[in-house]
Specification:
This is ABC transporter ATP-binding protein. It is a single chain. This protein is α/β, with parallel strands linked by helices. The protein folds into 2 domains: 177 residues, P-loop containing nucleotide triphosphate hydrolases (Rossmann fold, 3-Layer(aba) Sandwich), CATH 3.40.50.300; 68 residues, no CATH class. A 6-stranded mixed beta sheet has the order 6-7-8-3-9-10, with helices on both faces. α5 packs parallel to α6 and α7 crosses α10. The relative contact order is 0.18. Bound molecules: adenosine-5'-diphosphate and magnesium ion. Adenosine-5'-diphosphate binds next to β1, β2 and α1. The site of adenosine-5'-diphosphate has 12 residues, from β1, β2 and α1.
Length: 259
Amino acid sequence: MAPVVELRDVDLVYVTGREAVLALEGMNLAVAPGEFISLVGPSGCGKTTLLSLIAGLIPPSSGEVLLHGRPVVGPSPEVGYMLQQDYLFPWRSILGNAQLGLELTGRLNNETMDFVLELLDGMGLADTAKLHPNQLSGGMRQRVALVRTLATNPDLLLLDEPFSALDYQTKLQLEDLVVDTLKQRKKTGVLVTHDLSEAIAVSDRVIVLAAKPGRIKGIFDIPDNIARTQPFFARKETGFNELFHEIWRELEDSDGKEG
Ligand code: ADP
Ligand code: MG
């Protein structure tokens, strides 16, 4: 099947004042429909930059970024982006926050509103629709952010450390919820995380990046028994620990200090 997103020989140079930073070099990557991949690597290796390129927020300095085979020229409703911070508007109700993307893209109608309510319900948030963000826990707020991201029905979701500010138990619950939701709705996902066990537990593939310049260091296919198991239980599957240590070793010498 044709990839949902593809990067071909992508370089990204940030120019600030008199300095130029080569944030990504020679990036080649294709993500298949319905696939869930994770990006791991040291701080500054270009993970967020990679998501920004896919989201159409910045253009590549050279090479191509393709979405469904077409060059990315700017943000598209086909792509949803969820961040570590939930960025909910405090003065808006939960429902008001959840439907924001639809409002901004002029697609709020009875049908899409019903879809938002269905998503809220599916995430155990039905009773919170009239509340405001400050009345919700961190985990609930991230669920609202997830609803808002899914509300516009993108087929590709970009997730930049969406669980890292949560306590451990909430994080495990949300991992399961996100993976279930994406698989059920046949979405494609790209997750950035600094938690290697999370990356292995939720993904079909883990991409290890190295820094200075940011580039792909290794690609690990996650065996079926782990990939097909809910993240919470995946951590107890045969081969999980061995794989963790194998990828860990790859990560250890990817901090860019060697060059
Ligand atoms: P990561 O998300 O993996 O921590 P980033 O993609 O944020 O890495 O950053 C990659 C590199 O690009 C880093 O060296 C960072 O300092 C630099 N960088 C990121 N954003 C900008 C920017 N807007 N302007 C200049 N340099 C940037
Ligand atoms: Mg980042």
